[in-house]
Amino acid sequence: MGALVDQLMGIFRQQTLGGAALELAILAAPLWVAAIVGLLIGWAWRPRWAGAVVGEHGQQATAAQPALAHATAPAEVSCRDTAAAVMPRTEMVISPEEEQLAVNTGDLMHLWRLVEEKDGGPSWIHMMERTLPTFRYQAWRRDPPNGPPQLRSSTIFEDASPEVVRDFFWDDDFRIKNTWDDMLLQHETLEEDTKTGTMVVRWVRKFPFFCSDREYIIGRRIWASGKTFYCVTKSVSRPSVPRHNKPRRVDLYYSSWCIRPVESRKGDGLMTACEVLLFHHEDMGIPWEIAKLGVRQGMWGCVKRIEPGLRAYQIARTAGEPLSKCAAMAHVTTKFNADELNAEDNVEASPSNNNTEVEKPKHWTCNIPKVLMISGAVALACTFDRGLLTKAVIFGTARRFAGPGRR
User: Fold this and answer.
1) How far apart are CA 167 and CA 374, in angstroms?
2) Which is more confidently placed, 196 or 44?
3) Does residue 324 register a pLDDT over 50?
4) Which residues form a coiled coil (predicted)?
């Protein structure tokens, strides 16, 4: 307190009014920083109805009424309620034995509808497309009204069989050994059904330094229709596994693949390439806007590591290395005829134009976070007298966070 009083007295001893104002501005720099950080955090954590009120994404006020009404509901929404927005919707009869499994036929129907674009969800918005000599990658996203952002991707690997790709993604031991999935720190099998191939596994995944690691309790199972594999992995509830503060458990997780042979782009007409259609979403316990930014920035870096890992796995299999227990369980599949699902599926859902929809022009209010970020950088840079390098770092960081919307 005494030091603060001395600084204030020194300011008022300034000979000119301008000098006193400058000193006061420098003294208030921490308050400037705190205010800007508070505004940014507040905007990132804003409820959805706030974006609707100011016309976010160009929606009219009438379209915002359902979101506003939803915002008046109690704030304490359980993970089970959140998961209801993405639960499989099925009308087919499931036997009691099947229903007791961690992953059942209803989950297969849900994944099949996603693949066939008959799930009735929002249209997919194209995000990214990359092509390399040995594989191609495309990604889409969509934002359901009552759940985390959802990702859809298509990866086509040349000279790869569906069976090997299936084993590759199921092999947790190789994920850690090869480090192609460098986020996976630990894995263990909690349950397994050797009749259906259903497994319950526990994962611990590494998160950036500012987040604690995450724990996942995952149920998974594979169905096979010819050479096409429907691989479902999703979070399941296991109260018998105690919770801890660290790692933090993720209660809503869905990551499933359709692995199928496709024609090679070599032009020989052979089905020697393999497509992996991935559908993924999870609630990691961080603001969804920040999660979308992280996915957009880090997606391609993660995808590029998959292909070298797959090639190393192919070499290991060709050399006769034994299958891990997880990969061996991938061979225990439930056979079905995908054509029969068309007859059983009585949900009328027209396919969405996933591949053609593009980002819509954003309303001017969508630039508010960028304005706040840049303004904060200006205020912060102006209060530091550390030369051009410090100011360049501050402005560069601000542009890094404010710029992804232009890409």
Assistant:
1) 47
2) 196
3) yes
4) none
Pick from 82, 85, 77, 88: nearest CA to 219: 88
Distinct helix (H) and strand (E) counts, the chain:
15, 11
* Nearest CA among 238, 205, 206 for reference residue 219: 238
pTM: 0.67
Q: Residue 217's CB: how many other CB atoms inside 10 A? A: 22
Per-residue pLDDT for 79 more than 50? no
Distances (CA, A) of 235 to 203, 219, 329: 11, 6, 19
Token pair belonging to 224: 């096979």
List the end-to-end C-alpha distance of the chain, in Å, as a whole number: 48
Which residue ranges form the domains of the chain, and what is each CATH number? 2-44+364-406 (no CATH), 90-344 (3.30.530.20)
Q: Which amino acid is at 40?
A: L
More confident residue, 58 or 151: 151
Query: 278 with 152: CB under 8 angstroms?
Result: yes
| Structure token digits, residue 251 | 């209660």
Token reading at 284: 């990691």
Q: What average pLDDT does range 208-231 have in this prediction?
A: 92
Say if residue 54's pLDDT is above 80. no
Specify burial of residue 148 (Cβ count, 10 A radius: 0-12, 13-18, 19+).
buried
pLDDT tens digit string along 184-218?
Answer: 999 999 999 999 999 999 999 998 766 789 999 99
**Tokens (6 digits) for 194:** 């050797």
Q: 134 vs 114, 140, 155, 314, 318, CA distance in Å?
A: 26, 21, 11, 14, 19
Q: How far is CA 261 from the centre of its chain?
A: 26
